[in-house]
């Protein structure tokens, strides 16, 4: 899947940035502690090149944001005691995206929209329309914008419909990039699903939850009467809710999936250097088992004990 955005204000398309040399030597580094992606690394060094812990006046900090790890959650921004961190936003180039869509290794496109209006979405869609027929799935990720949400979605669908040759999916982004925080984070995305289920004029397509999704999401969906599971050959289903209200067809575990893999990677000893989890089967199995505990209730996979 290739992801694009129609507005630079979209939270998914930003990076944190700061100059570590502007940071006071005695800073407690709360940004480093709060980053869920371990994307901030700060180290004390002496101006002359020797490490120091006792002479902050002669030292400085080096390192900063590891851009390839940062996914724009923004948690470092409010905790900086000196207000030195800034968010740098960008819009992915549609011309480059068109070329990617022509490749055989791209099956889907995910379009992030802020819900601020259809003009920017229409401009982006028109720039991609010649390549859209190369993909099997078009997903639109958007926040809950209140009573106008369904009208906005129908307007987007009217723009897309003439060029969609595969499936389309609506990704309900209740609370972006917050699934690793805990139980409370999933309430907004489930509330978004409840809102959509109550509206009969919603546009066609599959519906998927995102933003704030974690190990509590399915339980919350069950309580709301929105959970449904699918049976595959050779599996059994412990429960099936036959309800027109059970409209959620999938769950995207973004931030929570990063938390799972990050927690596992940190268990691999540092002396291995650049880590590939595939080279450590026991840790890979652990990560897979936790991942399957998330998708298993939806996909009706067999008991995890059979994987041991």
Automatic annotation (TrEMBL):
Q: Where is the 4Fe-4S ferredoxin-type domain?
A: 14-45, 61-90
Q: Which InterPro entries does UniProt cross-reference here?
A: 4Fe4S_Fe-S-bd (IPR017896), 4Fe4S_Fe_S_CS (IPR017900), Fe-S-bd_prot_LdpA_C (IPR021039), LdpA_Fe-S-bd (IPR057431), RLI1 (IPR013283)
Q: Which residues cross the membrane?
A: none
Output the SUPFAM superfamilies linked to this UniProt entry: 4Fe-4S ferredoxins
Database matches in PANTHER family: ATP-BINDING TRANSPORT PROTEIN-RELATED
Name used for this protein in its record: 4Fe-4S ferredoxin-type domain-containing protein
Species of origin reads: Panicum hallii var. hallii
* Lineage, top ranks: Eukaryota, Viridiplantae, Streptophyta, Embryophyta, Tracheophyta
């Amino acid at each position: 899947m290739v992801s694009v955005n129609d507005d630079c204000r979209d939270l998914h398309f930003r990076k944190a940035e700061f100059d570590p040399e502007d940071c006071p030597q005695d800073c407690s580094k709360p940004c480093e502690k709060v980053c869920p992606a371990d994307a901030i690394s700060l180290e004390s060094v002496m101006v002359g090149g020797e490490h120091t812990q006792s002479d902050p006046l002669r030292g400085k900090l080096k390192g900063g944001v590891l851009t390839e790890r940062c996914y724009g959650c923004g948690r470092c921004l409010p905790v900086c005691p000196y207000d030195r961190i800034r968010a740098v936003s960008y819009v992915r180039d549609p011309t480059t995206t068109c070329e990617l869509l022509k490749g055989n290794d791209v099956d889907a496109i995910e379009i992030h929209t802020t819900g601020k209006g259809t003009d920017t979405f229409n401009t982006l869609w028109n720039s991609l329309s010649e390549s859209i027929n190369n993909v099997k799935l078009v997903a639109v990720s958007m926040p809950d914008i209140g009573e106008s949400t369904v009208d906005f979605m129908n307007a987007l669908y009217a723009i897309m419909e003439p060029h969609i040759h595969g499936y389309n999916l609506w990704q309900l982004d209740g609370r972006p990039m917050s699934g690793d925080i805990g139980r409370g984070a999933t309430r907004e995305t489930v509330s978004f699903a409840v809102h959509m289920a109550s509206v009969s004029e919603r546009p066609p397509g599959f519906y998927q939850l995102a933003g704030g999704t974690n190990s509590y999401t399915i339980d919350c969906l069950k309580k709301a009467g929105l959970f449904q599971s699918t049976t595959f050959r050779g599996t059994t289903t412990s429960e099936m809710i036959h309800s027109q209200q059970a409209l959620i067809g999938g769950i995207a575990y973004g931030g929570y999936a990063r938390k799972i893999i990050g927690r596992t990677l940190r268990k691999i000893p540092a002396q291995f250097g650049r880590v590939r989890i595939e080279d450590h089967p026991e840790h890979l199995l652990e990560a897979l088992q936790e991942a399957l505990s998330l998708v298993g209730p939806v996909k009706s996979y067999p008991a995890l004990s059979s994987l041991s």
